[in-house]
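Study the following:
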Amino acid sequence: MASSATETETVRALHILIKHEGSRRKASWKDPDGRVISATTRADAAARLADLRDQILSGRANFADLAARHSDCSSARRGGDLGTFGRRQMQKPFEDATFALKVGEMSDTVDTDSGVHIILRTA
């Protein structure tokens, strides 16, 4: 049985993750004890991401540079690059948002169990 194009489609994306008090894992490479994360509200995390997104959209900052400095994901060391992935490899809200973007487009904030993200589809 042949699989449909949507089942075999892959994407590549960069992302910036800001964890908060509701995140499933309250630790990161920047905050190993989770003190800052546990004191961060979801609204604060989203506001930080909105500011970073504005910096990128205005041309004042580069997505990968901001990811390297601000993302709570270990992908920060790669400028937020998650590499190539297909369906059912990421949390559903993240997957849906990434696949909905055109190459070169950046998402609004996306909530997952990990925290709040902005996503830049690169392929």
